[in-house]
Write a structure and sequence with these properties.
alpha+beta, TSP-1 type 1 repeat
């Protein structure tokens, strides 16, 4: 072992030196060179930093740099995230997306163009005018549909979701809700009043009949009974004229 090589290293190094840092790493750690000014030192990490990808070898695991336009990569030729100003497509970083694709500035990827999609039209509504279905002959009826898929930036825009057309119906008079309600209320009050009047009249009639009956009974009790007049024909005896 070289005199400058130490076996008692810190930070995951298997071997190290005071000048070059880590020279080898413990199992399953990745060796990567970090630049500090004009100097490069070796460090051992559990995963490779941004801009690097890991490769495993029988004697050592190393971190290698991605391409210049790649922020993170799986291998040198397969990028997983691009640097600013580039769009990811099939593992590559492009300044402009291919035909048939569009740049997604949110994910910084080239994605398929999505066109608007709508549902089927609903049935036509009843013929109406100013929110009413009566009191007119010519009105309008409408139908609607919903957006089921919003378009992407370069996709076809959504069409109208509401459609209207003129309609003709047989005119019918509208019932005035306020007036009808008022009439019903007046009829109910009048009916209640008539019932109350009839009830009072019946009560008065029963009281009058009861009073008359009691008056007759009292009169019968206070007046003496009249004697019957004799029958004159019975009192007169026949005259015997034989003598």
């Amino acid at each position: 072992v070289h005199p400058n090589v130490s076996q008692g290293c810190q930070g995951g190094c298997a071997t190290c030196s005071d000048y070059n840092g880590c020279l080898s790493c413990k199992p399953r750690l990745f060796f990567v060179l970090e630049r500090i000014g004009m100097k490069q030192i070796g460090v051992c990490l559990s995963s490779c930093p941004s801009g690097y990808y890991g490769t495993r070898y029988p004697d050592i695991n190393k971190c290698a740099k991605c391409k210049a336009d790649c922020d993170t990569c799986f291998t040198r030729n397969f990028c997983t995230k691009c640097k600013s100003g580039f769009y990811l497509y099939s593992g590559k970083c492009l300044e402009k997306c291919p035909d048939g694709l569009e740049a997604n500035n949110h994910t910084m990827e080239c994605t398929s163009i999505v066109h608007c999609e709508t549902s089927e039209w609903s049935p036509w509504s009843p013929c109406m005018k100013k929110g009413k279905t009566c009191g007119f002959k010519r009105g309008n009826e409408v139908r609607v549909r919903e957006i089921v898929q919003h378009p992407s930036a370069r996709g076809n825009p959504c069409p109208a979701t509401t459609e209207s057309r003129k309609c003709i119906v047989q005119r019918k008079r509208c019932q005035k809700e306020g007036k009808g309600k008022k009439n019903r209320e007046e009829k109910r009050k009048k009916s209640n009043k008539d019932e109350s009047k009839e009830t009072r009249q019946e009560s008065k009639g029963r009281a009058a009949r009861r009073q008359n009956r009691e008056q007759r009974e009292n009169n019968n009790k206070t007046q003496p009974k009249k004697r019957k007049a004799p029958n004159k024909e019975q009192d007169l005896a026949p005259v015997d004229t034989a003598h």
